[in-house]
Design a protein that fits this description.
Oligomer: heterotrimer
Number of helices of chain C: 12
Number of strands of chain C: 2
Radius of gyration of chain C: 19 Å
CATH topology of chain B: Rossmann fold
Helix content of chain B: 25-40%
Strand order of the largest sheet of chain B: 6-7-8-3-9-10
CATH architecture of chain B: 3-Layer(aba) Sandwich
Radius of gyration of chain B: 17 Å
CATH class of chain B: Alpha Beta
CATH superfamily of chain B: P-loop containing nucleotide triphosphate hydrolases
Number of strands of chain B: 10
Structural class of chain C: mainly alpha
Number of helices of chain B: 9
Distance between the termini of chain B: 33 Å
Largest sheet of chain C: 2 strands, antiparallel
Strand content of chain B: 15-25%
Helix content of chain C: over 70%
Strand content of chain C: under 5%
Shape of chain B: globular
């Protein structure tokens, strides 16, 4: 007998994933402009969902305020390119660093709250960010500002090249995020996180520093969320406080994606994002009714199938595409017994 | 021969994957006092939780006055006149002594027990009636827990390990009060670690061992040897 | 004198915030549930009041006669139908379900009433005022504060002087053992939510008379209520009133410095309390 992490399904998924990645990388040569924009949007939502899932599904930090970092990242992109003269790509990284820095004092404050009060606390922080940025006239105040044309042009020569670059950045970010989440969960810290999720008291009695683990997760997730935010507003070319810190766009949709896809698994957000976009493309009219439908579905999923669509699949077929858990495998000896 | 008040037939009880009771058969006649003894983990508290409805079991496995009650909720069982003095007292910390007693009587069944008669039984409680219940000593809390169950004027009262954690002198005074309770025609089941105390107040005794009944007999005249064997599972 | 006036107005505003918070505090106290849709339910009550006024021509305050029992019934149904199924050890289900409810409510109101701001007309009440010394006090704010005090006093009375209040406290202490007293916890929770939404109805209608509202402002009311609860301390209704007053005063002083700073000043006051006294000013239970 041996203890292993991989399985047949995981190996197949890895090969399939690699092939898919190659296809996606060469997309600028086979996909139309609209398709590339859509895929870019999918990648960014998937990144946001994976990060929210890491915080909520693994670290137990349920935030309804991640829009704080999406907007913060967007504003930092604008500030760093316009006032400091960074190139957009460098500014995206800079937004991540700044996101990490500001998340530290935020975490120190809101970690004093627990459970649902923590959640609302994150919302308050997002509101503070929104109201503060609305006061900054240098960045357009309440009505926002547009990204100057010369900065946009500096990204690459020609519109096709710029759109390809935007697309690759989005693809790069989501691959990095998923890889980072996966590697983190495979590491010792990740194991500690899963232990905390399953039983906090038992975990702390094993010497796991719960507060620090959650703190690290919060800072890393917020920094990466800020980077995604920077990329989002690089593509939108315009930013305003209401758009940057919108609860609907950056939190409601993300939460529904993760809940319906399957919280606490890496595969869940992937399934959720695909379902979400499939639904959006088929339901031609966006907006209120669509949001209500999402809300009803999310409630039903939470009450009846709390592990989401992936949870149902996993329970039924025992599948795990991202090998995380350990299995005991019977090995055959030479005689085949 | 009247039907038993409580008839237990083939009672099974599970905590998720773990089975705690295996096919327990027991009966209690009206007015009887049963002692339930057994070592830790034998299933005594599980039995109390099953009867009081805190755990659900097969409906017909528990019959009360001929009615199947095994799958009823605890609040429904309480409405039928079964009261439990839970293991560890479990008073309501937000309620005062008096409020704990009052809430015990909220179903409003008629009978000999009222706030005043409970205070007559345990005078110290009257002195401390407005005090938060959990600031009392262990023995006094036990009195409140017993009083709370009595206030329901139950037909059947269940005592789960009332001597646990109490000093011997306190245990003695509580057991001295017991005849006053069960003497009034109330039926009772007493789960006890202290075997001699259990035998001294009961008519019959059951011994549980690893979830099964290992001994049944009249409390008077049962031999120490047969109890030890049944208690520890020695054949 | 201007500053004194600001503090007084802020105190009266605090009464409204305490009303927002009272229902939230009650529910958390009884069943450890934080309802993210709470703010949207306040706004829903305001729309309910508006509809009653438009349909019957009643004065908004009289609409309370219909709105309060209606919201209580809705609360009972909501709790027994949906929220009871989310209660347990896991904190995700109640949070995510109430979040989903919030989104459904907001968008449902948007569909039915559109995004146009609405307001209920209370006639003379809105502008009437009286003076105490140099202070000019509006009748409506004073009335609102008085209602807040009365509501909190009534809730305290229910909790500490009635059998239902004993039941609430017992179930909140120990759900399991409370059943032994014949208490059906699903019913008790339903009653608690009914009571909370009845208070919410009062808050919603007083809000709807005082300012204009639209489907999107629910989140802001939840945050004000939440801040009042945290500042005041968990599990203490009078603390919640104090929290509301502090929040109201912080906001009006902030507005005096710069009108755009009003809400931000409130958030800052909340963050300061969180930083130096995270358990709140008068806590009775821990989070």
């Amino acid at each position: 007998m041996r203890v292993t992490r991989t399985s047949q399904a995981a190996k197949v998924a890895a090969i399939f994933g690699a092939l898919l990645l190659i296809v996606l990388i060469v997309a600028p040569w086979w996909a139309g402009r609209a398709d590339m924009r859509l895929m870019g949007e999918i990648f960014l939502y998937l990144a946001l969902a994976s990060l929210w899932n890491l915080m909520a599904g693994y670290a137990g930090l349920v935030s309804v305020g991640q829009q704080a970092y999406v907007g913060f990242g967007g504003y930092m992109l604008f500030a760093l390119t316009i006032f400091v003269g960074f190139s957009p790509v460098v500014a995206i990284a800079g937004a991540g660093v700044l996101g990490a820095l500001i998340s530290v004092p935020v975490a120190l404050l809101i970690f004093r709250l627990r459970g649902a009060y923590f959640a609302i606390g994150t919302w308050v922080i997002a509101e503070v960010f929104r109201l503060s940025f609305a006061q900054m006239s240098a960045l357009g105040g309440g009505s926002g500002s547009s990204l100057p044309v010369k900065i946009v042009r500096s990204m690459a020569d020609g519109r096709a090249a710029r759109e390809a670059l935007s697309y690759w950045l989005a693809l790069g970010v989501v691959v990095c995020v998923i890889l980072a989440v996966y590697l983190f969960l495979r590491s010792r810290q990740g194991l500690a996180l899963t232990a905390i999720r399953d039983n906090e008291l038992a975990a702390s009695s094993l010497g796991i520093d719960i507060w620090r683990t959650k703190f690290v997760v919060y800072v890393v997730a917020s920094a990466l969320t800020a980077m995604v935010g920077a990329l989002i507003f690089l593509q939108k070319l315009r930013i305003s406080p209401d758009a940057a810190f919108s609860v609907n766009d950056w939190t409601a949709f993300v939460i529904f994606i993760v809940v319906i896809g399957g919280i606490g698994t890496i595969e869940g957000p992937i399934i959720g994002t695909l379902l979400f976009f499939a639904l959006r493309e088929t339901l031609a009219d966006l907006g209120t009714v669509y949001l209500m439908v999402l809300g009803v579905v999310a409630i039903l999923v939470m009450l009846r199938a709390p592990k989401g669509v992936w949870g149902l699949i996993r329970a039924r077929f025992g599948l795990e595409l991202f090998p995380l858990s350990f299995h005991v495998k019977q090995t055959l000896d030479k005689k085949g017994t | 021969m009247a039907d038993p008040l409580l008839q237990i037939t083939g009672l099974d009880a599970h905590y998720n994957d773990f089975q705690a009771l295996y096919g327990v058969d027991m009966h209690l006649d009206e007015g009887e006092v049963l002692a339930i003894i057994g070592s830790n983990g034998a299933g005594k508290t599980t039995l109390m939780r099953s009867i009081s409805g805190l755990m659900t079991n097969g409906a017909a496995q528990l019959q009360y006055r001929g009615q199947p009650i095994g799958s009823l909720r605890a609040d429904q069982v309480a409405g039928l006149g079964i009261a439990l003095v839970p293991e560890g007292r479990q008073l309501f910390p937000s309620l005062s002594v008096e409020e704990n007693l009052l809430i015990g009587g909220r179903l409003g069944r008629t009978g000999p027990w009222s706030l005043q008669t409970v205070f007559d039984l345990f005078p110290i409680l009257e002195e401390r009636r407005t005090v938060p219940s959990t600031s009392l000593s262990g023995g006094q809390q036990q009195m409140v827990a017993i009083g709370r169950a009595l206030m329901a004027n139950p037909v059947l009262i269940l005592f789960d390990e009332i001597s646990l954690g109490l000093a011997p002198v306190v245990i003695k005074s509580i057991y001295n009060a017991l005849p006053n309770i069960v003497g009034k025609g109330m039926s009772a089941m007493i789960v006890e670690q202290d075997i001699s105390k259990a035998l001294s107040v009961s008519n019959r005794v059951y011994c549980l061992q690893e979830g099964r009944v290992s001994l049944e007999g009249a409390s008077q005249g049962i031999s120490r040897e047969s109890i030890s064997h049944a208690y520890f599972g020695i054949k | 004198m201007d500053w004194v006036n600001a503090i007084v107005q802020g105190t009266l505003l605090g009464g409204l915030y305490a009303l927002f918070a009272a229902g939230l505090s009650l529910i958390f106290g009884v069943m450890r549930l934080v309802n993210i849709a709470h703010g949207d339910l306040i706004i829903f009550s305001a729309y309910l009041g508006l509809t009653v006024v438009m349909a019957t021509g009643l004065h908004p305050l009289l609409a309370l006669i219909i709105a309060v029992p209606a919201m209580a019934a809705i609360g009972y149904a909501l709790q027994r139908g949906i929220l009871n199924h989310t209660l347990g050890d896991d904190l995700l289900p109640p949070l995510l379900v109430t979040f989903g409810l919030s989104v459904i409510l907001q968008n449902g109101l948007l569909e039915v009433y559109t995004a146009d701001p609405q307001k209920m007309d209370a006639g003379v009440l809105e502008t009437a005022s009286f003076s105490i010394g140099d202070l000019q006090l509006g009748v409506l704010p004073v009335l609102t504060f008085g209602v807040a005090v009365a509501v909190i006093a009534s809730l305290q009375w229910v909790f500490y002087r009635t059998a239902m209040g004993r039941a609430f406290r017992a179930v909140s202490d120990n759900q399991e053992i409370a059943q032994l007293m014949g208490l059906n916890r699903r019913h008790i929770f339903g009653l608690a939510m009914a009571l909370a939404l009845a208070v919410t109805a009062v808050a919603g209608i007083l809000l709807g008379i005082r300012t204009s509202f639209d489907p999107s402002v629910g989140g802001g009311r939840l945050i004000f209520g939440f801040e009042a609860v945290i500042i005041g301390g968990l599990g203490n209704l009078w603390g919640t009133l104090a929290g509301g007053v502090i929040l109201g005063v912080a906001q009006t002083i902030g507005a005096k410095i710069d009108p755009g700073w009003q809400i931000l000043a409130g958030h800052i006051a909340f963050l300061i309390v969180l930083a130096i006294r995270p358990q709140g000013l008068f806590p009775r239970i821990s989070g």
